[in-house]
Amino acid sequence: MQTKSIIDFVGNTPLVEARNIFKKEGVTLLLKLEGNNPGGSVKDRAAYYMISEAIKRKNIKQGDTLVEATSGNTGIALALMAKVLGVNMVITMPENSTIERVKTMRAYGAKVILTPADKGMEGAIDHALKLKYKKGYFRLNQFDNFDNPKAHYKTTGPEIWRDTEGEVTHFVSAMGTTGTITGVSDFLKEKNENITIIGAQPKDGARIPGIRKWKEEYLPAIFNLKKIDQVLEVSEEEAREMTIRLAKEEGIFAGMSSGGSVATALKVANSIDKGVVVAIICDRGDRYLSSDIYQ
């Protein structure tokens, strides 16, 4: 009998057509359901690659303690993958993160340290750095770790190319760490340099979990603007409205970053006469039930 581990089910997520929120002859809008990963988000891919590659390079070994700053999904993915791969995980994150995320990380066995909300992700990053130097923890640093985009070059990009039979013309992703959009861009551009890569980022003042406009000093090292053809801004209202529409009209229960991604993809799809637009659905909506989005 051939058996599989939970890791074998990371990736190969469904690609489904949006048939209710968008209808236009000659244009197809496809949504990649990353909530179907074992940990419930696209971050499972990067978490597995970052930890497993660090073990392969002997940067870490089983029993070591890792530390990472996260706003949520990466922390859940790391908590899951860490225990499966035999290392310990310490997560630092802003205290205004939803309780579902905190409890899920702790359920997987991670230690979660909440940092002041007014310091944002930058404060969580600073605290992770303190623990690295004070406690000697190994910091994965998803923002500067090139195993992050590598995961998407190796898996997400090839899946999109395969499942669209090479017909994808536009790829849209929310930008957080930028690992997804960077890695997918690398792969798809190798296959067809005419594929348009579009990143969604929040308008000034918008608070959309999972999508960020970084301060210059905190800009991820993995980010390369040359790999993105167009950056479109999305408002908090647009992201929120689309998140609700996805659940009610398409049966896709997701978070606000997915709403931002699809709201942006809809703008792209409406602006072209022919093509196949693929957008990332970043995670599942169950980790946002305590927030006000589904009130």
Structure in words:
Its cofactor is pyridoxal 5'-phosphate. Pathway: Amino-acid biosynthesis; L-cysteine biosynthesis; L-cysteine from L-serine: step 2/2. It catalyses: O-acetyl-L-serine + hydrogen sulfide = L-cysteine + acetate. It comes from Polaribacter reichenbachii. It is built from 8 helices and 10 strands. It is of the alpha/beta class and 295 residues long. It has 2 domains: 158 residues, Rossmann fold (3-Layer(aba) Sandwich), CATH 3.40.50.1100; 97 residues, Rossmann fold (3-Layer(aba) Sandwich), CATH 3.40.50.1100. Strands 1-2-10-7-8-9 form a 6-stranded mixed beta sheet, sandwiched between helices. Helix 6 links the parallel strand 7 and strand 8.
In short:
The chain is α/β, with parallel strands linked by helices and 295 residues long. Helix content is 38%, strand content 18%.
Task: Give the helix tally.
Answer: 8
Anisotropy-based shape: globular
Could you give the count of β-strands? 10
**CA(first)-CA(last) distance:** 47 Å
Beta-strand percentage range: 15-25%
Largest sheet: 6 strands, mixed
Question: Which architecture name of the largest domain does CATH use?
Answer: 3-Layer(aba) Sandwich
The helix/strand series, from N terminus to C terminus, equals EEHEHEHEHEHEHEEHHE
CATH topology of the largest domain: Rossmann fold
Task: Give average pLDDT, whole number.
Answer: 94
Question: Structural class of the helices, strands and pairings?
Answer: alpha/beta
Q: How large is the radius of gyration?
A: 18 Å
Q: Give the number of domains.
A: 2
* Order of the strands making up the biggest sheet: 1-2-10-7-8-9
- Broad CATH class of the largest domain: Alpha Beta
Low-confidence spans: none
Q: Helix proportion of residues, in percent?
A: 25-40%
